[in-house]
Amino acid sequence: MDSIIVRGGTPLHGQIRIAGAKNAALTLMPATLLTEEPLTLTNVPRLSDIRTMSQLLQSLGTEVASMQGGQVITLSSYNLASTTADYEIVRKMRASNLVLGPLLAREGYATVSLPGGCAIGARPMDIHITGLEALGAEIELRDGYLHAKTKGGLKGAVVELRFASVGATENIVMAATLAKGTTVLKNAAREPEIVDLVKCLRAMGAEIEGEGTSTITIEGVDRLHGATHQVVTDRIELGTYMIAPVIAGGEVELIGGRIDLLQSFCEKLDEAGVSITETPAGLKVARKNGRIRAVNVKTEVFPGFPTDLQAQMMALMCTAAGESHLEETIFENRFMHAPELMRMGAQIDVHGGVATVKGVERLRGAPVMATDLRASVSLILAGLAAEGETRVARVYHLDRGYEHVEEKLSAVGASIERMKGE
Length: 422
Ligand code: EPZ
Known about the structure:
By secondary structure, the chain is of the alpha/beta class. The protein has two domains: 3-18 and 233-419, Enolpyruvate transferase domain (UDP-n-acetylglucosamine1-carboxyvinyl-transferase, Chain, Alpha-beta prism), CATH 3.65.10.10; 22-230, Alpha-beta prism (UDP-n-acetylglucosamine1-carboxyvinyl-transferase, Chain). It is built from 14 helices and 24 strands. It has helices spanning 22-28, 48-60, 87-90, 100-107, 126-134, 166-176, 192-203, 235-248, 263-272, 310-317, 337-343, 373-385, 396-401, 405-410; strands spanning 3-7, 12-17, 39-42, 63-67, 72-76, 84-85, 109-113, 138-142, 145-149, 158-160, 182-186, 207-209, 215-219, 227-230, 250-255, 274-278, 282-287, 297-298, 323-327, 347-351, 354-358, 367-369, 389-393, 415-419. Strand 8 (138-142) and strand 9 (145-149) form a beta hairpin. Helix 1 runs parallel beside helix 7 and helix 6 (166-176) runs parallel beside helix 7 (192-203). The chain is elongated. 50% of the residues are buried. Bound molecules: ligand EPZ.
């Protein structure tokens, strides 16, 4: 397993290009199952999760053509050979469950392994199941798989989610595009990745309104056609790299960065003493002056503070002046980066869903362990600010969600390198 070594203390200067959003691409790719015509996606991030989703879709019979080093992919699901998403793939990536809605809509049945838990939580699928059952699906859990079928196809319905689940919203919206009649989805997730999915589905001929609000209305149509769609900018990669010049010092321009994707996150950075300037190419970020101030954070569904940036913000708060409280309300176990940051000298106290961080002057480099995707990158960020060398092990977690992190950071002056197979 590879590890990454970071030597801290160098201020960062230059530009980082932000890639397309992993969490948009992972729901856009299964949309191929909704049509027999080719769907081309551009600005696709080059990540292992994208390769995993390609493998899953190919196992169902989709042809996947990858061009420009993976940044452009064309998916053709003319003939489906299977409607089963196997445990071996699903256990590696929960987003595999996003084939459930499209398969039900296209074929009338689907067998999808339950993803099983992951490092950050149990990750159940009850909201997906309840929503699809409201559209007329019969779903039974047997042998760790969801066995779903519809007699006579899906029918539009009014569905209210008990929680604004991102994945459940995506599965239900995709299924409803081919259902008979109107579906009104209430308490729908509002994330930009949902907005991007709806833009693509609309280009494919779907009739959908209300994306980005809590109520999405879908008029079912008989069929969808192919389209070409550009994947939206990755707001989580953007937020991650916005923190880099703040924690390490210097100033970095994030190409493709947009404040509207991260309003509440940018407000928190501003409160902490960060300068964010919109430029023609994106966003320029630097400390305003002196030390960063401690701020309190509570993760919420969009447009609140993103849970996927909680670990990165905690890394920044480790060297902020004062005490900050970070409350994680979306996942039940998303503080695994805390003990690793403490190995670097951070002062963190975790009680239930709240982590209290007392800022220290300097962190000290140490060997640390990546546990999940966003925790991994928070350790890299901490390493940029730490005295000495930080070695982050198990960086396969990192490669799931960040394109060539060592290349992007070394291009702005960070001392960072990957050790193969360490
Ligand atoms: C998406 O996961 C993202 N993944 C996650 O990003 C992100 O953290 C999450 O949304 C929240 O924003 C992708 O888009 C591929 P949820 P998803 O359904 O859809 C509970 C990353 O780092 N829940 O909104 O799985 C669930 O357990 C990843 O890129 C149920 O209880 O998130 C969790 O506590 C990590 N029942 C909460 O809701 C359900 O049926 C949020 O889950 C579904 C979810």
